[in-house]
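Protocol step 4 of 5: obtain the predicted structure for the target chain.
Materials: sequence only (see below). No template structures provided, no constraints applied. The aim of this step is simply to have a reference model before the mutagenesis design in step 5. Sequence pasted as it appears in the construct record:
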Amino acid sequence: MFSPEGPRLSELAVQALSSVERGYDLLAPKFDHTPFRTPDSVLDATVAALLESGPYGSGLDLCCGTGAGVDVLRQVCRDAVTGVDFSAGMLEVARSRRRPEGLDVSWVRADARALPFGPEFDLVVSFGALGHFLPSELPGLFAQVHKVLRPGGRFVLPVVAPPRPGSLAHAMLLGFDTVMRVRNAVWRPPFVMYYRAVRFGDLWRGLERAGFRVEFLALPEFGRRRDRSPRVRLLVAEKAEKAEKAEKGEGRPPLAP
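Step 4 output (structure tokens):
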């Protein structure tokens, strides 16, 4: 699961017994060599889908980590790109990475549950971050994303189909979540990291309640499962345009299905 450059078991143990923030501060120098980083194949497929409806103006990578999502935004945004995370260690690694000439990137240390921005973004992306929020925290998180988007702006994130019950992958995720729940029951501070906490239906309903129009789009690069359902979907949540624009039929074109 880990490359030779990744963390040792002893390092992972120390990180797992820390808070989420402290754990990621410690993991940051080796994070890109772990399976926790979003695969390049998913990042590239997200870029391809966004280019169909772009370009966008300004973009925000929510819980940006070491900046993989920022590199997605730099390919589809024309004005400005910002990465926000509450781990100083992850932001330090993100800042140190070499990037091609182009848009400058702003890095902001902040909690995603209290974003220090007004409605200044046309696109917000997030990769692999939702498992760090308890279900009770998601309404507030979605409200924050809604707050920082301009009318017509989009919140986009890839969502992998959950493994089938009874499969080895399902057993591994269930085992991991069980270990984390036991850990959090007996150890403080808690380390919130659950892979099975968020379902498609819960995402859909939560985002609609926050004021978004929601759709799930298949990413064709990953094919379909035996039941013909997509292996990976792109969640696209759009903030309503101003009333006068909606009446005129203006606005950004939809992403290709």
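Step 4 remarks: The longest helix spans residues 168-186. Residues 243-248 have pLDDT under 50 and may be disordered.
Proceed to step 5.
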